[in-house]
Structure formats: C-alpha cells, structure tokens
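Below is how a single chain appears once it has passed through the pipeline. First comes the sequence as given, then the structure the pipeline wrote out for it. We keep one example in the README because the format questions we get most often are answered faster by looking than by reading.
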Amino acid sequence: MRKTEFKNEEFYHIYNRGVDKRDVFLEEVDYVRFLNSMREFNDDSTYEQRMQGKELSSLRELSSEELDNLVEIVCYCINPNHYHLILKQLRPNGVKTFMHKIGTGYTNYFNKKYKRSGSLFQGPFKSIHIDSNEYLLYLSAYVNKNNFIHGYNLENWKYSSLLDYLGKRSGTLCNKEDIIGQFDNNIDQYKEFLENNALYLKEKKESAKYLLEE
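Resulting structure:
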C-alpha cells in the first residue's frame, strides 16, 4: 500500500527508474515522447484523444496549455535510466492519475518500439510529500540539476526544466512561480542558489535519505 497521501495544493517529489537499473530513454525521440506525455496526459482525456492530428518534432515546441489540469508541474529532469518530478496536486487523485497515464503510456510506446514486453520501470512510482518551503526549494535544486548531481555532466541538458528556470528556452511545461518567485524573479539569485546546493547534493547524495539511489 502506498504510504503517501496525496492532497490538493500540496507538493510531491515523484521519481522512478528503469527495471534492473536499465536505460529507459535511448534516443532523443524517447525523451521527447515522455515530455510530451507530461503535457498531453495532464487532464482526463486519453493520449489518443489529445494527440489526434498533432505531431511533436522538437523540444522547442513543448509548452503547457490551459487545461483542466490534474497537477502543476514545478520541476523535472529526465535522465537515461530514471526521472524526477516535483508536482503540485490540483485535483483529487491528480498525481496518481497523471503518473499512471504517463507510466502506462510510455511503457507501451517503449515496448512496441524496441520489441520487448513486461514492466519497464522499477515498480510503482516513488513519492515523498514535500512538507516545508525549505524542502521545496532544496528539492528544486536537486531536480533541476539532477543530471549534474548524478555525474552526467552534460552542459545545457535539454531534458530538464533547468533551462526554463534560467531563461534559456522559450516555452515551458512548468509553473516556475512557486520557486523563482521566492527569489523576486531574479534568475541570477536562483542560479547562485542552484549552484551552491547542487554541489553540496552531488557530494552528499549517497547519504541523503530522500534521494534516488543509483
């Protein structure tokens, strides 16, 4: 039984990784598919209904839409073998519905494309309630800089909300106001906060109880 009780207007750290620690994003189109699903699955319609007549060709086209959203996406980072999200629930059962649709949809896509069967992720998604503003800010650094923290060290990682927070990409899946608004919308202040905390997290990730182990 899931321990986390999801409540509206509360924030949650959501994460999971590939079964047997396998890579689940093998090429750019896989990342784009997952990120597009984050946008298209954020209401009660099916993926097929939302995608009818649409085709996503690049990450630059990603943006949020005015929908009856299940969740608010605050931050995200998609790495080769795992993902991290910060979500705020907007509707009852919003987080569970959203994540079920994403997990099922992406697994079906991946298995069909790569001619495999069975589970793709390591069980149900993991979730932790973010119970303080300090924790929310701290985790925003962890998620936005997650590829750096886990040693990928690729500059300008396209599959993270970091570029959106630093004003380096037009269009975003995220509502950044919950985080960047606390820095008076000053990107330089938030960037300094990110750099300081990401370096600390990289050094301490093995002992931090709420971070995803590799």
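Residues 11-204 form a domain with the Alpha-Beta Plaits fold (CATH 3.30.70.1290).

See the next section for the split statistics.
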